[in-house]
Amino acid sequence: MRLTLITFFSLLCAVNLSIISVITSKRLGFLGLVVILISDLITKKKLHFKNTAIEVIYFWLMFVLSSILGLLISNEINSTVLAIGLTSFNIVLLKLILDSTNNINLNGFYLGWYLASFSLSLLFLYKVLLIVEFDFFKVVFLRKYLLEGAFSINSTFNQIVILIFCNLFILFNSKFSTLKRYLSLFLTTCLFFFIVFSLSRQNLIACLLMFNYLFYKFTNFKFKIYCFVVLVPILTLFVSTKINVEDLSGITTRIDKTVSQVTNTDYTRFQQFSDSFVAGTESPVLGIGLGSYYNYAKSLGYSEHVRVPEAAVNQVVAEHGIIMLIIFLSTISIMYYSIRSNKDIIRLKSEIVLFKSAFVAFFVLLFFNEIHVQTSIWVLYLLFTFLKSHYSRTTL
Question: Which among 24, 72, 108, 234 could bridge 3 via Cys, Cβ 3.0 to 4.6 Å?
């Protein structure tokens, strides 16, 4: 039961979906982990660190130090500061709890994973279907309805990429029952369907890269059939809506806008990328200071709606400096190759391929969104290393 709760609340921390009012899955997961830690302290359970995933802890401690120094420069205290602090605390908290877990019966791990993935997927589908009034014929206008409902499209669908991965973990893991795997198949298809028709370009690219990586690296023939029979028709349906249908002109407009932006060297994202690196190289150790990107962009003449860093790479290099960006990208690489180095554990082969595909997808999102609110990659990595270490112990 304890391992089930740890896994359940950890995945809630990794996915930031609104539940009711100010309560999000991320905050609920955080509270759950705090309760578990308090119960451990009350029962005098020994808490300790091991070497597993220590590079994550090390990185975030450096990130916090860089943030504190940056604050002294910029005097800016905003939600970004709180996000970094909460993320860091989440990671340390989860690390302490996982390292204090000596039970190697992983049934609880799989149950917690399934309960979190299933409940979060249903929560998202419920909220989206409320917006489109339970009318599937309106799904092609999904982006329009999301915008009218003040729905945060890109940041929300970042979380759906994570949920797709969580459901794939269930789908291709023999430890889950057939019924659970079929349910995850259904949920994966629905989630991908909504990503396509949200017109969220960054998340569609991330998903396609994840599926493409799995298609070539995963030896399971059923998955290859799934890609052709389910995923390809969804994309075909999306592309076919461009054929002279007046009501679907919003989709064609989105496609045309994407083409014009990519081919235009004056596109704001390209300018942001260039100016951010200039700021990061001029002050390589501290950058311009945490939270200072807005005023920095304002001084360069950016319009108000593009003064927020639209990519983690932009934000890290500008606000923390080029050195922290190198550390940041190096940490991601270390995490990726630490998974690759464990390919000799046969029982973990499917998990290794899945987690590597997730890292590919998340890495793409670093070029489209701020990183400070994305705890997912760190939480999932800690869960993986825990799973890896216990598999290692059981196969010795």
Answer: 108
